[in-house]
Specification:
Number of strands: 4
Strand order of the largest sheet: 1-4
Largest sheet: 2 strands, antiparallel
Order of helices and strands: EEEEHHHHHHHHHHHHHHHHH
Distance between the termini: 66 Å
Shape: globular
Strand content: under 5%
Number of helices: 17
Structural class: mainly alpha
């Protein structure tokens, strides 16, 4: 930039005027030039030939010209570095997880987590405690209704408090820090890893069963297979959210197809007249409070996962619409499938045979599918793997949110720079699940898990009531 200023005594200056001669040349970053010429401003006088242009400036004109110059300079600086402000905003954006969960993925996350090993194993125990086919079907419907009521309550909480973390964040925002800290401790350290360990052990039992026909599988092989399942899930969920959701969608579709095969097979048997199990269906019903409570306990295990979408609220696309829609699609769908599958079981087996089957779905496959019975074992393994993926996906978010709120070490609140996944929280959840697999088995872990979940949810109805209470 070159600037020349000269006073010219040949001209008589009006009051409040300044006589300047300016030469101004600047090369921009784009290679162009900006030249200030005498026609840019009114000039009452003329310059000598060969001299610099001569301008008349009033004090106001000079101030306006200075302001225009500063504005031009700022525009040029912005042009020279167009990505500066964008990079700053993008840097802040990278600190948050992306909103990549839509309606289909939301339905898949709820239904895929609910449909695990329970519907293939729990019917035997529900019938054992209820005593009759009709009462057991009523119990399955009641469990679905209870899950629906709970999910609708959670949908209301999730649309008001649009933060991830599920029960933890609701307790924190409504009851305060201390109850939320207690919940985070039990959930992150004990409950979520126990749920993941139980589902992975169930997957391992069905996955290795074909290799040990006629005898029980060794516990060492089952536990090693469950550990491998946890490690694979850790890699998938740490790499990409879309990859984890794609795996969830594929396995949910596979398990829905397997349940439809069982439903269609049962309808064919009913059409052929196999209705012996539905004669005197209430005979032998147990009406005791204790037995009904234990039957609820067994049935609700198959419905666990109805609140999974609330753990990832911040990652939902349009959460105030997606969350309630996904709940109202997924839970009635699962409830209807569970009822139809149980009817199919009763169509293929007498109640006494069902009580002694050990693995209800496998027994059904041997009676109905004959040489294709191995498809049922494969379907159960795929179903439990998909359910464990949903449990792992949501469990890592609880750890991440608790660390972000200061109730867990700060390192667990970090996200991968490129993948934008809560990798430290996922690795911690994986490590805790691996520890629980070593001394435990499926039955003991499920019993412990259901007890801790019952203790956790004693605060949740109060959360909704307190939120809706008038000021």
């Amino acid at each position: 930039m070159a600037v020349g200023v000269r006073n010219d005594s040949q001209h008589t200056l009006p009051k409040g005027k300044a006589f300047l001669t300016i030469s101004f040349v600047r090369s921009g970053g784009s290679g162009g030039q900006i030249v200030l010429k005498n026609q840019d401003l009114p000039c009452p006088g003329s310059a000598e030939e060969g001299s610099n242009p001569v301008f008349w400036y009033s004090s106001q004109q000079k101030a306006d010209r200075d302001h225009q110059g500063r504005s031009t300079m700022r525009r040029r600086q912005t042009t020279d570095s167009p990505h500066e402000s964008t990079d700053l905003s993008e840097g802040k954006e990278k600190l948050r997880l992306k909103q990549e969960v839509g309606l289909i993925s939301g339905v898949s996350l709820i239904a895929g987590t609910m449909i695990g090993s329970g519907i293939f194993m729990s019917p035997e125990w529900v019938l054992h405690h209820m005593g009759s086919p009709a009462s057991s079907l009523l119990m399955w419907a009641a469990c679905g209704l209870l899950a629906m009521f709970g999910a609708l309550s959670y949908a209301e909480l999730g649309t008001v408090i649009k933060e991830s973390g599920g029960e933890y964040i609701y307790i924190l925002r409504i009851f305060g820090s201390f109850p939320a800290f207690l919940f985070a401790y039990t959930s992150v350290i004990l409950v979520r890893p126990a749920a993941l360990a139980a589902v992975c052990l169930s997957f391992a039992e069905y996955a290795v069963a074909p290799f040990y026909p006629g005898c029980s599988s060794p516990q060492v092989v089952i536990k090693c297979t469950a550990a491998a399942c946890i490690l694979v899930l850790t890699i998938i969920n740490c790499l990409n959210v879309r990859l984890a959701m794609s795996v969830m969608n594929v396995f949910t579709a596979a398990k829905l197809l397997a349940l439809l095969v069982i439903v269609v097979g049962g309808l064919v048997l009913l059409a052929k007249g196999q209705t012996q199990s539905f004669q005197n269906t209430f005979q032998g019903t147990n009406a005791g409070i204790g037995t009904i409570g234990v039957a609820f306990y067994q049935g609700l295990w198959s419905y666990d996962g109805w609140n999974n979408l609330n753990y990832v609220t911040e990652e939902l696309k349009n959460p105030e619409v997606t969350l309630p829609r996904a709940v109202m699609i997924a839970i009635p769908l699962v409830t209807c499938l569970y009822l139809l599958v149980n009817i199919s079981y009763f169509a293929a087996m007498a109640p006494s045979e069902l009580l002694t089957s050990g693995a209800v779905a496998v027994t059904w496959g041997n009676k109905v599918l004959a040489n294709w019975a191995w498809l049922i074992s494969l379907s159960v393994a795929l179903s439990t793997f998909g359910s464990s993926n949903g449990t792992f996906f949501s469990g890592g978010r609880v750890c991440y949110i608790a660390a972000r709120e200061g109730h867990m070490p700060d390192i667990l609140s970090m996200a991968h720079v490129r993948c934008l996944t809560p990798s430290p929280a996922l690795l911690f959840t994986s490590a805790m699940s691996l520890i629980m697999i070593i001394p435990g088995n499926f039955t003991s872990i499920v019993t412990y898990f259901r007890g801790r979940r019952g203790e956790e949810r004693t605060l949740e109805p109060g959360s909704l009531q307190r939120m809706n209470a008038p000021e």
